[in-house]
Amino acid sequence: MMNSKGLSVRNVRRSGYRKSPGEVIFDVINVTMFTIFMLLCIFPFYYLFINTISNNDLVLKGAVTYYPIGINFSNYIALKEVNDLGNAFIVTVTRTIFGTALMVFASALAGYLVTRKKLWKRSFWYRYLVITMYFNAGLIPWYMNMVMLGLTENYMAYIIPGIVAPFNIILVKTYIESIPGELEESAFIDGASTFTIFRKIIWPLSKPILATIAVFGAVGNWNSFQDSLILMKSSPHLFTLQHRLYFYLVKASDLEALMSGGTGTNVALENTLNSKVVKYTIAMATTIPILLVYPIMQKHFVKGIMLGAIKG
After folding, report:
1. CB 197 within 8 A of CB 180
2. Long-range pairs for 223-226 at CB < 8 Å and ≥24 separation?
3. Domains located in the chain, CATH noted
4. Which of 18, 114, 249, 257 measures 20 to 30 Å from 240, CA to CA?
């Protein structure tokens, strides 16, 4: 037997509900504004891409604006002549994988522990964690600290400092607090330890927020170059991809000569490389991989960030 509310909803659907003029105008304005915003976000990447696959002479003249002209991929093929990009890519990928994995695990564990009322001085530790988000010693003390810890010219400088991320811990804590406490209590009554509860109950149920902070961590690790720039001055084999991008954007003429030196004949000679195209190509080559991460994680990202923001 259907209640009156169910009947009313079904009757409205059958009757062919029509939106009022005000609702239609509101929807049109919303769709228009968000469409324009989407295009503004996408166009810079699209503009870079079409310029990297177009005729380089036309790109130099500014003739390529809305669609590619003289399509070719010689610019990307020429990147193989830049020998240190391969090693920088490996360094960046490994730091992204290991750094993100350790950060996610540490954030999940710490976020769970600060929700435990039995944790000694729980309020103190949580406030101590939060206060680090508002106070920063600055660049010079940070560098001196890294020197004293022996993390200069050391690959672990990419991993260890990022393991504890206060903002991500707060997101995880807030999300875990939305999980029914009865699940944890019943497991505790059955004799499960704290770590068992975390591993078998909290971790599986927290996958949306963990996917969210994984995206944050992956993007942060991928785009980071300041630590490489400051800490790895004498270790070129530890330079990250973004560090190389920064270097080549500053000295695009050097990269232009390097890429042009081994491109051979045919299309590559017909499309003479120039510093403008080189900057576009290297920027796209370092941006595309991380852009592929978000669509894969989008479902969990949206759910996690919304549920993680319910409580303060």
Report:
1. no
2. 223/290, 224/158
3. 76-312 (1.10.3720.10)
4. 257
The CA distance from 78 to 268, in Å, is 8
**Under a CB-based contact definition with an 8 Å cutoff, are residues 312 and 130 in contact?**
no
Task: Tell me the two tokens of residue 274.
Answer: 């120039």
Q: CB of 36 within 8 A of CB of 17?
A: no
The secondary structure of 200-229 as a DSSP string is IIIHHHTHHHHHHHHHHHHHHHHH--HHHH
Please tell me whether the overall predicted TM-score, pTM, comes out greater than 0.70 for this model: yes
Q: Say which DSSP state 53 is in.
A: S
Tell me how far apart the alpha carbons of residues 210 and 172 are, in angstroms, rounded to a whole number: 7
pLDDT tens digits, one per residue of 3-42: 544 444 455 455 556 778 888 899 899 999 999 999 998 8
Dihedral sign for Cα 192, 196, 202, 205, please.
negative
Taking CA atoms, 101 is separated from 160, 166, 205, 207, in Å, by 12, 16, 17, 13
